[in-house]
Amino acid sequence: MSDTEKALGAAYLQDIRSTFGAYKALGDKSFAQVDGTEMHWKADEEANSIATIIMHLSGNFLSRWTDFLTTDGEKPWRNRDGEFEEPALGKEELLARWEAGWACAFAALDAIPEDGLLRVITIRGEPHTIVKALNRNLTHCAYHVGQIVFIAKGLKSGDWKTLSMPKRKPRGSEPS
What we know:
about 180 residues, mainly alpha, Four Helix Bundle (Hemerythrin (Met), subunit A), two-stranded antiparallel ribbon
């Protein structure tokens, strides 16, 4: 592997870890603004609550990234359908699940060598390069963290503390 390829691998891994971290931070900042009851609010019976999304993302991360180099990313112990049942957990327990999923994902990211991105792993029996698996999981994460932010912002309405540049601020007036 050339020095350029190693540098590209290192840059990709640094960027994807940073991007995953940014999505985790969005979730964390959203959770800080809602209480335990609001974590279980659902728009209707078919909708997911923040609590359900936490359970699903945590389950997904634990399944995908536990022993990901040697086992399929869909573990036999995962109960995906159960992740969508409203959990009878308080806010602290939900946040512990959130943290466990993220810890697993970050440990896996930290273990990927910069020259290992084209290594093939499996998810649900399908071959994926590590790059493809990371991109797939990041997209999945972004989708669900967006849902968390949307629900939390809707619940807090005028009391919501923005997670990015506030509306009606001129561009360039705040750091990005």
